[in-house]
User: Fold these one by one.
Assistant:
Number 1:
Amino acid sequence: RLAHPADLKLAQAAIGGAPVQSAGTGYLRPLGAMRDLVPDRWFGLEAADTVILHDFPHSALRPEQIAALRGYVAGGGTLMVPGGANWQRLAQSPLEKLWPLQPVSSSPASSTQVAAIVQKYLAGRAGLSGADRLGGAPVLLVRGSLRSDARVLLESGDTPLIAMRDLGAGRVLMTAFDATQPPFV
């Protein structure tokens, strides 16, 4: 899928932006697509403000699609990569050199880390507090080392929860958690 409503809200909050609006009339709508529909030229993505790579094997992307995603970022696009349980998928991705964080493992978030995510990502939701474990389900985080040219947008202790890396005219945004998986959905 190229976008998910929760991801767009998270991307806007993470990079400090106002709600994303189209140049025309009203708010942009998320676009979902199978990985085989990812364009094989970067200008096929230019209409998207943010492309979100969900939990699928990135090795399934064709070389033209990989080049298109790299070109999209270099040309000014924002690529968002959710973490979560499947850190190996990210570590073995043909796009791994773009990530702000080099993934090495996944593990459950601490209550302090969950509180930071809830405060930033779910602020204003009725009945949720920083101590809420989101219905008791564990929040899984990708762990790794931050690349030298990346910056942390949200952290808890020394753990980056949201990191960003500028590449060319664009950027790659990575969340340690996956907002499209339980307990977020």
Note: The beta strands are 50-52, 78-82, 101-108, 140-146, 150-156, 159-167, 170-175.
Number 2:
Amino acid sequence: DGVASLIAAVDRVPLAVELLANAARTEPSLDRLATRWRLERVGLLDRGVGAADPRLSVPASVELSWKGAFMGVDAQRVGALRALAPAGVSLVDLDQVVPEGAARGAARLRQQALAFDDGERLRMLAPIREHIAAHHPPREEDRDRLLDLWERLAVTDGTAVGADGGGAAAQRLDVEAPNIEVGIAD
């Protein structure tokens, strides 16, 4: 159903759902709204061009937290990397990619409600991830380390699938597949 898939696309974030509903008022069909979502992503979640009120704009809400004094460089580094990974990032992998500040950065992202833990993975809701990915790219060296990690994982675990103990490798690849696809596309 069109409504359910649009709501799922924004991870059921109440402000995002409300702003999608507002955008739907000016569209002739849900198909057209879905097309706008695919094209505009988080830009659609703003009740007016460049609305500065975080109650009326997902981008303004994210920016309020992102630029807040509490964030710090570590949180921005981790957040920018995290935004590249639709399936979240394993906390162990994050420590490898940003060894000097991953734990501190992840903690601040959680405190600012920009990320949350899902088991052993750090995740972001889709509207937050979309905005950060579009407006706050990671440092090139951080991005390269993350992409290298995904490449090594694909090769190492991909080779292990079908061998003794390959079930665990297949399971990890299944979890990481959306991230590896991003890495391949990059």
Note: Residues 93 and 149 are 8 Å apart (CA to CA).
